[in-house]
User: Fold these one by one.
Assistant:
Number 1:
Amino acid sequence: MDRRRVLAGAGALALAGAARPAVAEPDHPAAAAATADPAPLVPTAHYQDALAKIVGNGSPIEGRMTLELPEDAENGNIVPYKIGVESPMTDADHVARIHLLSTQNPQPLVATFRFTPLSGKAAVSGRMRLAKTQDVVAVALTSDNTLLIARTTVNVGIGGCGAE
Amino acid sequence: MAASKPRVRFPEQAQAGDVIEIKALITHVMETGNRKDADGKPIPRNIIHTFTAHYDEALIFKAEFGSGIAANPYVSFFFKVPGPGELRVSWQDDEGGETIERYPLNVV
């Protein structure tokens, strides 16, 4: 649990433009060797571009959207994801879009889901590819132009996506 | 490889106003475009780029997929049943292939 929080924090730092997250440097080499955790990966420039295109000048809100993936994925070719936002899904108040992004795959925009009031529920699940250990990010846009964001770290055993 | 063997699952019957889950799976290679063949030539991308679900003429849900979606794409989404009608789902891939399936919904 601690490690996930550290990785998430490092991801946020990287998003903020830090060249290298300071928290990735082990203070105690022996302890770091004992856990043998790799340093968190800095999101790709492709990802930053894709995120910027979606978010624009907006400030996405954390905490309203759930993004569930396994903490450890042995096979990066097939990793289940589940995304949900609590929403009345009425004409006046619904989730319009959810974007699913990878911070390390060759192509960062994995999927864009469009919802309507007929959807009844702003939820989607499926299976994605992950090239390597990384943060996966979801960004939602509501009908009143509110942006929501959620992220989670997945440790990948064997990467998907083919050769880069 | 074209898309084949679409499978769509949803409850056998529903009442108007119910929110039901719809699960859709199709067989497709979802070639990413990132791989090379034995001669080192790039293998062109061929993925299902769009999945849509309509009820009669109204859009329920649409998914635009990139190369990061796993082979044999599976998607689960929800649908608030307004009344009797026909569910229509379609998959489109990069080679111009389109698979369309239609299902009447048993609304009680």
Number 2:
Amino acid sequence: MREQAVVNSDGASVTPAVAVSGLSSGYGSVAVLYDVEFTVGHEIFAVLGANGAGKTTLLTTLAGLLPAFSGSISYHGTDVTHLAASESARLGVGYVPQEASVFPDLSVLENLTVGGMIGTRPHDERLEEVFETFPDLRTKLHLRAGNLSGGESRMVACGRALMQDPTVLLLDEPTAGLSPLYLELFFEKVAEIHRTRGVSIVLTEQNATQALGIADRVMVLSLGVGSEPMSADAVTTDLLREGYQI
Amino acid sequence: MNLDWLDAFLIFGAFKVVEIMGLGLLVHLQLGLTRVANFGVVGFWGVGLYAFGVAYLKVDWPFGDVYQFLVCAAIATIVAAAAGLVVGWLISDLDDDGTLVGTLGFATIVVILATTQQGLTGGALGLGGLDFPYDFGRVKTHEFTWLLITTAVVALIFAYAWRVYRTPHGRLLIAVGSNEALARSLGKSATAARLRMMMVTSGAMGLLGAMHGVMVRSLEINSLDVSVTLAALAALILGGTARVFGAVVGVLLTVALFDIVIQFYIPIPDGWNTQALPVAREAVFGAAIVLMLIFRPQGLLGQMRRPALMRRLHGDW
């Protein structure tokens, strides 16, 4: 794997929070991602793309739930390409899937506490922090997570990932299927989590406008091939059209 | 203790109810909590029964009844737990269908081994000579005492099942059961959690097998029958796989109905007890499984956790 580094705000070269090099992945013998390459520093990194572009496959592979065909993944300089998902989680990777993101038979509180099974900080302290970010959860602790609305489920899922005290948060289309009210709230929360907790975030989205509003850098994924990562400010409509193939 | 008022067959009926209740509770932990569809219950139970019997009868132990029972029961539990660990590992990457076939295959292997290893097990003829670890004089007193001891063991299994819901390990198992991929991203090994549960529950099934051996005082190949698995599963599915009380309610409505109520308190023609009733029992159990899975798959008691339970579990929160 070639040496990768990102430059921080002081201009110093630092080990990236996430470094992906030549990553190919897929299901069975069917490849979905081809030679994807990017690094993520202390930032919000958005992966944009249309349906079927490979965004979920990318995040599932980054979370260690899908084996990589080739290439490498490292978090803070530690190669995790062949590590189990549980090992990656212990290295500080929190993962929020797009679908089935909560444990339906557990209550909201239990969903949060299973997230806190790793780490050394006291549970209550971490819970309080989650409630600061998602105050609505405080009144729904006893509810069965399977009975929550889509927006509430995403809050629980994000809260559970935050309970793991992550240094890298993988968010797979956190606003998919949400009402406009929740949509705006969620993007605000993602930005807040990054700002207040110092978590590097890899976010996949179809909603380019909203994602560009909070992302520092962007990669457009098209049929499993990633574009050169660029500053969110540099993304043009033409570039997105090309990436989304519309 | 004067037990003249008590029918000896009633003791056996009650023993069967208690035993299947124990197995149902253990299947609840596997299927209801962790979603491991074990169709080879009789295999783990049978491993315990035969490991106990062989250890008891084929080894010349230098100590008396109680210690001999305790050591042999421990061996039965350990052998069954080891079998649970191996089978659990083999099926760890399989889907539900694969798990069903794998566990059923394991039970078949146990029956074949018990039948063919005649030098150890007595084969189709079986082996006699097992006995109670105490001597009070009368057989009926022995059997009644054994029923009480087995009830205490099943009560401990119930307490464990009740308690596990309130522990981090239990919550992890529920998480693994409902969404294994997501559970793997929590930082704990889903496979290890599942194997631990398989080991504990299979070991307890083996212990119940050993206790059965003492009650019937012999090893009989006929006892390794699919009816053991069927009774435990039918009871649990009827009561509710996801509830601790599911197995209790289910067993009362199935095994207790047939092996106590109908057999002892309903006037049925002579001969039915030994011929028609066992067949009808299996047919009704099978039909109960099919009907419940079609019309009320969550069982009579419903879903796993209700708001009242959650409020109780969460205390101050």
